[in-house]
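Marked as duplicate of an earlier ticket. Keeping the data here for the record.
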Amino acid sequence: MEDLNTGNPRQTAGERLTASSPQLDGGSQRTVAAISSPALAVARLTLPRVMDAEGRVDESRLRMHIFKNGGVCPSERGLAWRFLFGMYPCGSTALERSLLQDQLAVRYQVMKRKWQHFLPSAMRMRLNGTDAELLAAVRYFDQRQAQTQQQSQDRSEAVRVRMAFLELQAQILFERVTFDREELQEAIRIIDKDVPRTNRDLSYYQNEGLGNLLVLREILITYAAFHPEVSYAQGMNDLCSRFLEVLDCEVDTFWSFSCYMEKFSRDFRADGLHRKMELEAALLKELDPPLYAHLMKGNMERFTFCHRWLLLGFQREFEHSEALRLFEILSCDHLELISQQVDRARYQERVAQKFSTDGSESELQAINTDFTFELFICAAILLEHRESLLQCPDDFQLLQYTNGLQGTLDLNSILKKAEHHFYNYCKRCAWDFTNGRCRPDRSKHEDFFYHLRSLFVLK
């Protein structure tokens, strides 16, 4: 694997994107994830100009740093994700987060106990006696539970009183929550099939880390129980596993995963699947009409292979640590914010044109802000393999070819190409034509594109 921390000092914007390559520490001794992580509430990010003296985070700078540096270093990733995905409000101080951490921990425990009391038979995963690894996972998980109970008993009187008050608040908050027994049982049945299929080759699930499979199960069941409108769908185990691996904490994983699902739960429903494919098809039509026409010879189902890529953040298409880094870059939404800025600027141009002319000019194209950066990543992969895809005569060979790409793609190359396609798309949509001629006010035109380019350059 290429060392991404080295390279020509005169880097392009795309090269700056991939200059940082956080790597997972695969050699450390894995243990079962902590239940809560109060120490991180007061920990500091060392990213330049991102956190102030009281611990408040400048969200726009955090997102910009992640995008323009290709992620954050491994030592800061867990803390950065707690802000990136909304578990910690960026405007909170370190003191406020300490109080919030206790509140979130107690609420999660109350939620978990509620479904366990409702379905006591589901507290234990039904195990296949031939799966020795899962039997070991239960042993490691139970050991952690015993240690946690002992730590609770060792708390000071003041801490016990405060936690009891928080627990009373949580019980009142969730008192009226009810469960549908059949729906929850069905969700648990699917979870118990999917959790053992989670990639156990990851170092995170090695040795004592096997107990994290049971931690993952409890998080997923708690989420399904308290989000019946979403419940559980296949693929969520892999997605949640990514949060658990990075955050290494049960409570923090639940709340960060829940925040993520608030935005993307639709992707796990049929209408979300269709919408993703429609958007990818529309973007490819903009970038390469012939390839789009070839893939559309049958029907929209020919873009089904893209849905797995988009749903799981290209988890299988890149080497694991690179897929993790890509997920971080995509989740910072930096380019989506850029596209909104470009669209606002473009709207102002259109308004100015409307009131300064007789209306004979052609309508100017607007930015489609639904074209998120992940769609450009997907398009970059398709365009890189354009010739081979054009040779696929039917759905079977198309799926066979795209499945063969798993673990073979180069993230550096794809990131730079996706950035290139995004920039050109914005430039093409924002270019100010009047009946095919550029505006005479060249200085304003050039300033606009200088601003667009500057968004890719690290200040």
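See parent ticket for discussion. The radius of gyration is 25 Å.
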